[in-house]
Amino acid sequence: MDEITSPKKHTEPTLLDQLKVVIAKKVERQNVFIEVPERPGVKLLVSPNLTQTQIRSWQKQSGSESQKGLDSSKFACTVVGHATKGFYLHGEEVLQDDQWPMTFASKPILEMTGCDKAIPDAVQKFFGIDAHVEAAALAIIDACGFGDTIQAEATENPTKN
After folding, report:
1. CB atoms within 10 A of CB 103
2. Which domains can be identified in the chain, with CATH numbers?
3. Which residues contact 37 (CB under 8 A, 6 or more apart)?
4. Left, alpha or beta for 63 (phi > 0: left; psi -120 to 50: alpha)?
5. Which pLDDT value is given to residue 92?
6. What φ, ψ does residue 82 adopt, rounded to 5°?
7. Which of 36, 101, 133, 160 has CB atoms 3.0–4.6 Å from 42's, for a disulfide?
8. Residue closest to 99 by CA, chosen among 108, 110, 90, 112
């Protein structure tokens, strides 16, 4: 057969090719803002890309396996402290003198709060109310997808008639 009479090769990507492209992409959620209720105009930029391994490790660090049990305030501070990627005031990012975003471990935050330790001390002092730290941690965990509902439907196979 010559080129004119030979069948053309299928050049469109197959469903398998398309699935490979979809699966090759990194799954990552966009950062979200968390308000600090008693600090008007202040928001934290947080990453909702926390893993189950991180959450479990922070629970252990917060005493989940001790006789006293989980210190929910310490756990909340740990989640908020590690997830925070920046501080915003009236919609504008507050940067350090070197123009880098701040975290709770940044010198200006430690100085503002009068704390030596970012977690849990600076986080607690920054929020001012333990219940708000815990609410922020729950919002971050929800944003991670731990509270998502995934629908399951009983359907017939659409390829079978």
Report:
1. 18
2. 28-144 (3.30.2220.30)
3. 127, 129, 132
4. left
5. 97
6. -80, -30
7. 36
8. 108
The pLDDT score that the predictor gives to residue 154 is 76
User: Residue 41's closest CA among 112, 92, 101?
Assistant: 92
Contact predicate 88/44, CB 8 Å? yes
Strand-strand pairing, 84-89 and 42-46: antiparallel
Q: Judge if the upstream peptide bond of residue 158 is cis by omega within 30 degrees of 0.
A: no
**Residues 65, 62: Cα–Cα separation, whole Å:** 9
In the DSSP assignment, the letter for residue 129 is -
pLDDT, position 3? 55
83 vs 26: CA distance, rounded Å: 19
Q: E strands of the chain, at which residues?
A: 32-35, 42-46, 84-89, 92-94
Question: What's the whole-model pTM score?
Answer: 0.82
Q: Which of 121, 142, 106, 133 is nearest to 32 (CA)?
A: 142
